[in-house]
């Protein structure tokens, strides 16, 4: 996984946290839900990238 992908996914998580907190502070359930969705999306993308990394490491282990 590239550093850029990691940074983008983490930024999406942080943006989601901000939205969620803003939604809670302003009593806006829609904004809070959007924030939670952004966090979940960022975490899912990170998990996918980790799977790719593991598969690449496994493949590299067989070729050596």
Give an account of the 3D structure.
With 64 residues, the chain is mainly alpha-helical. 92% of the residues lie in helices and 0% in strands. The chain contains two helices and no strands. The longest helix is centred in the C-terminal third of the chain and has 35 residues, at 29-63. The chain is rod-shaped and about 55 Å long.
The percent range for strand residues is under 5%
What string, H for helix and E for strand, traces the elements in order? HH
- Low-pLDDT runs of 5+ residues are none
The main pleated sheet reads as:
none
Radius of gyration: 16 Å
State the share of residues found in helices, binned by percent. Answer: over 70%
Count the DSSP helices.
2
Specify the overall morphology: rod-shaped
Let me know the average pLDDT.
Answer: 90
Q: Kindly state the number of beta strands.
A: 0
* Helix-and-strand structural type: mainly alpha
At a glance:
92% of the residues lie in helices and 0% in strands. The protein is an all-alpha fold and 64 residues long.
Descriptive terms for the model:
single chain; 64 residues; mainly alpha; 92% helix; 0% strand; rod-shaped
